[in-house]
Amino acid sequence: MDDRGFDLEGRLHDLEDADLKRTLSPVDRVAERGYFAEPSGGELPVLDSTEALVFASNNYLGLTNDQRIEDAARQAAATVGTGAGASRLVTGDTMVHQDLERQLAETKGTERALAFSSGYAANVGTITALDPDVIFSDEYNHASIIDGCRLTDAETIVYDHCDATSLRTKLERRAAFDDANEESWLIVTDSVFSMDGTVAPMADICDAAEAFGAWVMADEAHATGLYADGGGVVQAEGLGDRVDIQMGTLSKALASQGGYVAGSSDLIECLLNDARPFVFSTGLAPPAAAAASEALHVARHTDVRERLWENVAHLRDGLESMGFTVLGDSQILPVLVGDREDALALADELQDRGVIAPAIRPPTVPERTSRIRIVPIASHEQGDIVKCLEAFRGAGEEIGLL
Ligand SMILES: Cc1ncc(COP(=O)(O)O)c(C=O)c1O
User: Fold this and answer.
1) Closest Cα to residue 190, out of 240, 133, 250, 119?
2) Which tens digit of pLDDT belongs to each residue from 270-293?
3) Does the predicted model carry a pTM greater than 0.70?
4) Residue 190 in contact with ligand 1 by CB distance below 6 A
5) pLDDT at position 180, please?
6) Whose CA is nearest to atom 10 of ligand 1?
7) 4 part of a folded domain
8) Is 120 close to ligand 1, i.e. is its CB under 6 Å away?
9) CATH number (domain holding residue 383)
10) Distance 142 CA to ligand 1 centre (A)
């Protein structure tokens, strides 16, 4: 009998040949520094003997090992339970979920919010539940948005990255096919793009949407907790009443796990009935919900955001004055290298100097734009930023980039 199974070995070889095979390199803890291990396959990993500075995490506010947040998670585990035990719609809805959602809605200035078990689930669940006829999507949107679009019957029209003029042109062209105004249209964009550090022109996107009656959905995964009063770009730009759907994750600045959607009461009622990843998945674990609530509180009411933005300014200035090109205009600092081999060599040299910051290369980014994606976090000390800059100088000189 012929084998009807799967040629996994062949697939892995293909990935290796194309230099696309990924590996897992564990670290002892999630913080601004840690001991990493080489990829070990299924074997027990062996941690390095020296500590590295981490400049590649989305733990932007450095809250993953903050005492207040640990205590909140511990207390929720002890008093509510370690897991939700069922879908929120069955018996998995708890007071910590309700508390988190109330705080998210307050931060985002919306009537209500709904927590999902991941940001990925929130995007896929929301887009599929809305079930638009046409989706207008930024060309660099996150994979979870792309997958949400693929799972609907919608026609997805991709516009140029962060280009509201390109969006308008696509809206105009589509409107010519729909003169009876019968289609439902959704414009969806990341607010901060994680590989480019760019910020979407949200006000211009809202102008374009309003001119054509479309709804706007903003993915604030890389913005939540970092901007005005602990909100995202939507709050920083005062667009709360113009963006219909604000989505985000609890797993980056909020130091936890999970995702959320904030919007009108009707939106939330529809999602909790129709978003399949919400309905048919166990509720967010109570310790994760409690940790995210506490982190949101810290983001809103302390100086932690200021510390992040000071580190961002210091690092950007230092890199630019050395002669590196730093892209974007957010806390994410992609250092443009160009050639993929140079980017890999730079990442290796940085690692040798105790700095972890990976090379991002095609197909994740376009050809000839390989880069090092570097992100400071609020808990890096000034000395850590200086060490990172020294590592860039040494590594850049070593491979002839400076
Ligand atoms: C823009 C964006 N949206 C959504 C997600 C998914 O969030 P989560 O990691 O919580 O599933 C991510 C994270 O990787 C992201 O970068």
Assistant:
1) 119
2) 999 999 999 999 999 999 999 999
3) yes
4) yes
5) 82
6) 119
7) no
8) yes
9) 3.90.1150.10
10) 7
